[in-house]
Amino acid sequence: MTRLVAGAAGGVRLATPGGSSTRPTSERVREALFSRLVHLGAVDGAHVLDLYAGSGALGLEAASRGACAVTLVEHNRRAAHVVRANVETVGRALSGAGRKMHWDIAVEPVHRFLAGTRGGYDLVLSDPPYDLAESDLAEDLLLLTRHGVLTDQATVVVERSVRSPEPLWPQGMMRWDERRYGETVLWFAEPGRVPE
């Protein structure tokens, strides 16, 4: 079990899929990430896309802290079942706090979802398995640059192992920061031209 760190549903416990197919983001990393995102004004009222959702902890943390809509994408059916249960649990907590949310859960591969989405996302949280090939991550990032997937002021966060290389940022997306927490590195990017 893990729990939401803060916000309207802070302290709510989340189920985790277990097994080796998912690797939940630690509470310490989520706290650091969301403290930064809230400070940047990237969460309140945002339309959030949680890729490789696992338990849904990142998207649900965003919901707890003020996002108005969250789409969670998870291909693994067992994990997607856990996401649905966690959305119900958090949804009840948010409803009890007077918050209305819009939820979508997509049970399909991330690249397929991204190829078909109409988008309009303000915040993208991508926490792929550490063994995801760099070329597959690069394809995900390229698909995010399709017209209309991201809003002009969107923030994209990619979580990887510190042993992984920096993602291959496509033309149309610019990395502006990285933060390291133990074995985890967070890469921050936004729409824009990659410097030559």
Describe this structure in words.
The protein is of the alpha/beta class. It is built from five helices and nine strands.
Quick rundown:
The protein is of the alpha/beta class and 196 residues long.
State the strand order across the main sheet. Answer: 5-4-3-6-7-9-8
Please state the structural category.
Answer: alpha/beta
Computed over alpha carbons, the radius of gyration is: 15 Å
Q: What is the N-to-C order of secondary-structure elements (H for helix, E for strand)?
A: EEHEHEHEHEHEEE
Measured between the Cα atoms of the first and last residue, the distance is 45 Å
Overall mean pLDDT score? 93
Strand proportion, as a percent range, falls in 25-35%
Oligomerization state of this entry? single chain
Q: What level of helicity do the residues show?
A: 25-40%
Number of strands: 9
Major β-sheet annotation: 7 strands, mixed
- The dominant shape is globular
Helix count equals 5
Uncertain spans: none
